[in-house]
Amino acid sequence: MSDAYPKMIATVSEPATSTRDWVAELRGPDSEPAVAELHALLLRAARFELSRRRGQLAHLQRHDVDDLANQSADDALLAVLAKLDEFAGRSRFTTWAYKFALLEAAVKARRRAWHTREIVTDHELWPEPRDPGRSAQERLEERELMDALRDAIADTLTPNQREVFTALALNGVPVDVLAEERGTTRGALYKTLHDARRKLRAALAAGGHIAEGSS
Amino acid sequence: MSIHELLGPEGPEIGCEECFERLDEYVELELEGADADRRVPGMLEHLQGCPACREEHDSLRDLLREPT
Prior knowledge:
The structure holds two protein chains of two kinds.
Chain A: H1 22-27, H2 32-52, H3 62-82, H4 93-114, H5 136-156, H6 159-170, H7 175-182, H8 186-206
Chain B: H1 3-7, H2 16-32, H3 36-39, H4 43-49, H5 51-65
Helix pairs in contact in B: 2-5, 4-5
């Protein structure tokens, strides 16, 4: 993912030479202006994220999207202020702060987009293939591979791994949405998915369906 | 959906928490043209395997490239 990016970071980020000490300003006795400025930056980032997702949020009124942006900026501000000790200076402060706003907005948008949709965890219910326009031979090979995968899901995964793999990998449920429903964390769910994928890859390789060391 | 997408990346990868922790550093390295994947090993694989983290990576990268 590091190909062909421009050498210059564009203007929404602080200049590389910026020596502004945001942490000191935010901790100082007169922090109000810095806090307000940071909130404005976080709101900009939240709006940016929500505008990328306007297709997902088409059912919301404009003021609802605005509320979502403000809630995201508020929550991100609290997170940033609570984690100032963790800012290690490996990036510009504003880049570090933006990621909190983008995360808050993305999570809220995914949950809004999915709150009326069913979360499928039954591994017998597979989504339709997205690329049916292939040759008969390719479709046959694909079907054999998918049958082997279906068997491996049934035979090698624990019930929890099966449900998580089915929801996240097969049905594209966002990890935050499943985490909220299950009362767990995104990281824990991804670890479950990772372990399930490793088992499935090993089972398919053992059956000669994929090459060792490939997916 | 291909078998490759379903089974995710082959190599070692970091988890979602470490991805979030180092995302700002990784994206700045990318935008500077530095070797982000060598400096943050396992990030690229995680972004290939985790759609949510990939979306947030792409958003941060694109936000930083936005003119004000």
